[in-house]
Amino acid sequence: AAKHEGRSTIRTFEPVMLYERQLRTLMASELRDAIGTDQLCVHYQPVVNLSDGSVNGVEVLVRWEHPSRGMISPEDFIPLAEEIGAISELDRWVMTTALQQFAIWRAALLLPDDFQMRVNISAVELRQLDMVDFVRSLLKRMSVPPPALVIEITESALVSGGEVETYSLLSFKQLGVSIEIDDFGTGYSSISYLRKLPVDMVKVDRSILQEPAEGTWQPRFVAAVYQLIQAAGLGAVFEGIETQEQAQFLRSLGELSGQGFYFSKPLPEPDITALLRSRSALPLGQNDVLSGGQ
Ligand code: C2E
Ligand code: MG
Ligand code: MG
Ligand code: MG
């Protein structure tokens, strides 16, 4: 009877699965068409120097404004792009857009010297032998100094890290571009493994800051994670800072940068440009200036 039940359960779901498969195929072709059009754009989330509140960088985050389905989250379409082999084109479009924007801001004198542009790439890109050359020539064409670029790569994706990936990481390092391991604390890689990779920094996943139960976020846990990263000789950037308390606590830990809704959500280009412009006219900022301005 159980076997029979199981079979009928599967049958019940078949039409849904069929529909989902068709929807996926449709979305896949729509996504292919969307790359390079104005359906895709990027938003910029400020990265803040926690000791003085100044904006010392931005993270570039892709957005898909679907003509009929509305805003689709990258959490949904990045995996799809990876699956259909369109991630390379997408990531390179984002990288190009980001570095063009950097050049515009710099020409307008809106950027402090230590400003860094943080761009996410899929780890699939590390297996593309021409990725480093692509970035190198783009930096040159846009006259962007390599240290101004930070490439974020998701931790879990690196676990499989083979020789080609390691070669790409070393080539980026040689080029002077920083590599940052994203979503640190959520993947399966051990810190001893990360120490062996040619990476400089980790982006601590927001789940590390999040409260395990309501009203009980754990500063001691956060401090321990930070100390571990430091002891491994890596730099840390915190994401998902949502409260003033978290911002102040992180500031007490050391010279740190961070980002999160407490400071600002990811902003469309005109808004981030306005923020950069206003900041450049301000003396060393306070956090309340930033949070008031969003
Ligand atoms: P990520 O790189 O870890 O980016 C941080 C995500 O956390 C962003 O989500 C951001 O909007 C969100 N976030 C920032 N501050 C806060 C906060 O205080 N609280 C909370 N709850 N969330 C916060 P988003 O923009 O939806 O991006 C999701 C993921 O999609 C990114 O995670 C990244 O892995 C991927 N992604 C985004 N853009 C690209 C891209 O151009 N290429 C690739 N390959 N992946 C991308
Ligand atoms: Mg990221
Ligand atoms: Mg992250
Ligand atoms: Mg993430």
TrEMBL record:
Gene Ontology annotations of biological process type: signal transduction
* EAL domain location: 24-280
Keyword Secreted in record: no
A GO CC term? membrane
**Signal peptide span:** none
| Source species, domain of life | Bacteria
Which keywords annotate this record?
Membrane, Transmembrane, Transmembrane helix
> What's the protein name?
Diguanylate cyclase (GGDEF) domain-containing protein
Q: Which residues of the full protein are shown?
A: 228 to 521 of 531
